[in-house]
Amino acid sequence: MAGFKPRAEFLREKKRHGVIPADSDLSKDEIDASEVDRKHWPTTWFSPR
Question: Is this structure's pTM higher than 0.85?
Answer without folding.
Answer: no
